[in-house]
Design brief:
alpha/beta; eight-stranded mixed beta sheet; two-stranded antiparallel ribbon; 6 helices; binds guanosine-5',3'-tetraphosphate
Length: about 190
Amino acid sequence: MKLLEDKIISDGQVVSSEILKVASFLNHQIDIELLDKMGEEFARLFKDKKVTKILTIEASGIAIACATARFFHVPVVFAKKNRSRNINDDVYCSDIFSFTHEETYHAIVTKKFLTKDDHVLIIDDFLANGAAIKGLIDIISQSGAEFVGAGIAIEKGFQAGGKELREKGYKIESLAIIESMSKDGITFRH
Ligand code: G4P
């Protein structure tokens, strides 16, 4: 999506060859008009799918998921991150290891918000190693719902998550895929 690529070039900061900072429009301050266009693009990319719910994970995924849900007219459910494992019969739980933060957390979704009748689209801000998306897919499978695909704002194509998930046959649509980045610039995959 050219609009997002242009925004990454103009406002993103390459912190290292692995980390892109997008705090000024996605992760801290939020550009609602850009998110609205991103939601519209996800709606176009997944228009052939039946979607009854959008699933994301706190915190930064929520705004993009909400922007997308406006076009599908379905609720957003966001997984909550817990440090302690909440052993409770009312929740689905999946353990997620964050490579960026080098820690494991527990993603929790209350059972009544995902049922076997749901068709679930995952939306998230970044796809790196794919740990968060795999954890959310695990939660969807625990619920018996159907996973219809995942829409990602920014995929770091040089990390393994996107390739692994697509090889499993999942529909993964990223609005901007970074092939490589350095202080000298960012190259996108098309
Ligand atoms: P993975 O899920 O694909 O395996 O990614 P990883 O564990 O490495 O990412 C953990 C967190 O770091 C996620 O946010 C993810 O969005 C974020 N992240 C990964 N790579 C980048 C990057 O290059 N730039 C930025 N800005 N964020 C990145 P989180 O910790 O869950 O934070 P938040 O959703 O509360 O903001």
